[in-house]
């Protein structure tokens, strides 16, 4: 068995996503399982090269996990002899310039979403990577989650008949920072720092709708900043300049209507923090991150509207859980493995920077729609 080492420059690993999902649960998890088998007895061994702004945080992190390579200089990291891939999980505003540097240094690029702050920049990054002949990918983790994989399985099997509508509900209460500390970084609530619900979540909704149901053709969005003042990590009060809720309606190809509420100012009365209900002529499903329940037309009850009588039916008990029928790995890790195989073996990989740009496009059009109070078409993108 031969081992092929591949250096992965990882930027933003002191952050929530960079550390937990990408470093620990993906790259280090791949090492813990003995590497990634590539076939023909070869195993890929990802070697993280940590890069960030704070030397002491990087050193502490490297020591904690027994890692040898870290630096506060992006140029130095990109020039590392092992470096083949650049990965970015920094705050969104820092992303574009770092990816440009990585492409200029000839590194394959994998990045968190949104891939850039504007559609023009996102397309430019996709074009630059393609012209340089570099592999490139954008994180689309929700597609690899058990609940949504089961939903996709149902769509592919024809379970729904004709799909009519999708209703998505995402959100939870993010504390204001006053009487309890906030559980998300404060930049998310400042537009000038790349924050905002639409920029954060519409990239996800784009690939979820496109990839599981049908391509998004138009968007209408209404936004709100329900909590206008919050308290940051240092205990300072700041003005929340970004949208903390977005109420979106999307028309999909084939006449499907999708409506998704996204809010950080809502209390959860759901089984999971995000749920999508898909209704079709032959059946319906409600998918969350892990679970997916269905109701076939043959088992659909016939409720009769009568406000004079208490509800007698236990509607929630009339659904059936979709079994796993397979083992599901961590969604981030599953996508990392596909990207690493793509880079090293040339296997196909569809979630590239152009797909990432589609998410930025939907966010940009969503914000414009909210500003102008009108529905906007979502044109096809090409490089
Ligand atoms: N795929 C997902 O489900 C998902 C979920 C949350 C966030 N994200 C994305 O991941 C990225 C990081 O989000 P996070 O929640 O981990 O954020 P975070 O604030 O926890 O981490 C941000 C990281 O960027 C670094 N950074 C670089 N320049 C910075 C600057 N000028 N100011 C502040 N930090 C700077 C920080 O040191 C830190 O390592 C964002 O682009 C976000 O959109 C994706």
Automatic annotation (TrEMBL):
Residues 149-285 form the GFO/IDH/MocA-like oxidoreductase domain. Signal peptide: none annotated. InterPro entries: Gfo/Idh/MocA-like_OxRdtase_N, GFO_IDH_MocA-like_dom, NAD(P)-bd_dom_sf. It comes from the Bacteria. Residues 50-134 form the Gfo/Idh/MocA-like oxidoreductase N-terminal domain. Pfam families: GFO_IDH_MocA, GFO_IDH_MocA_C3. This is Gfo/Idh/MocA family protein. It comes from Kitasatospora paranensis. The lineage of its organism: Bacteria, Bacillati, Actinomycetota, Actinomycetes, Kitasatosporales.
């Amino acid at each position: 068995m031969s081992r092929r080492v591949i250096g992965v420059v990882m930027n933003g690993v002191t952050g929530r996503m960079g550390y937990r999902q990408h470093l620990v649960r993906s790259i280090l998890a791949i090492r813990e399982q003995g590497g990634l088998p590539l076939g023909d007895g070869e195993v890929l061994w990802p070697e993280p090269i940590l890069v960030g702004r704070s030397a002491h945080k990087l050193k502490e992190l490297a020591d904690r996990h027994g890692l040898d390579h870290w630096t506060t200089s992006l140029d130095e990291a990109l020039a590392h002899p092992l470096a083949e891939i650049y990965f970015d999980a920094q705050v969104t505003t820092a992303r574009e310039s770092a990816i440009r540097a990585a492409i200029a240094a000839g590194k394959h690029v994998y990045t968190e979403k949104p891939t850039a702050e504007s559609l023009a920049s996102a397309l430019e990054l996709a074009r630059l990577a393609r012209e340089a002949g570099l592999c490139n990918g954008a994180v689309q983790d929700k597609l690899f989650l058990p609940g949504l994989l089961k939903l996709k399985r149902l769509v592919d099997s024809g379970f729904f008949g004709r799909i009519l509508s999708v209703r998505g509900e995402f959100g939870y209460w993010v504390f204001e920072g006053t009487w309890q500390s906030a559980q998300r970084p404060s930049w998310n609530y400042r537009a000038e720092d790349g924050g905002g619900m639409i920029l954060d979540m519409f990239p996800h909704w784009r690939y979820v709708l496109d990839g599981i149901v049908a391509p998004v053709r138009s968007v209408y969005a209404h936004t709100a900043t329900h909590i206008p003042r919050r308290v940051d990590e240092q205990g300072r009060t700041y003005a929340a300049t970004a949208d903390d809720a977005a109420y979106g309606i999307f028309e999909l190809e084939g006449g499907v209507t999708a409506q998704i509420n996204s809010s950080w100012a809502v209390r959860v009365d759901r089984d999971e923090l995000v749920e999508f209900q898909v209704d079709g002529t032959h059946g319906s499903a409600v998918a969350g991150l892990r679970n997916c329940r269905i109701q076939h037309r043959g088992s659909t009850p016939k409720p009769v509207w009568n406000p004079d009588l208490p509800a007698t039916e236990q509607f929630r008990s009339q659904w059936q859980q979709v079994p796993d029928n397979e083992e599901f790995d961590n969604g981030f890790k599953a996508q990392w493995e596909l990207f690493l195989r793509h880079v090293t073996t040339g296997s196909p990989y569809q979630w590239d920077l152009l797909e990432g740009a589609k998410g930025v496009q939907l966010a940009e059009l969503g914000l414009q729609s909210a500003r102008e109070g009108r529905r906007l078409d979502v044109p096809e993108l090409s490089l």
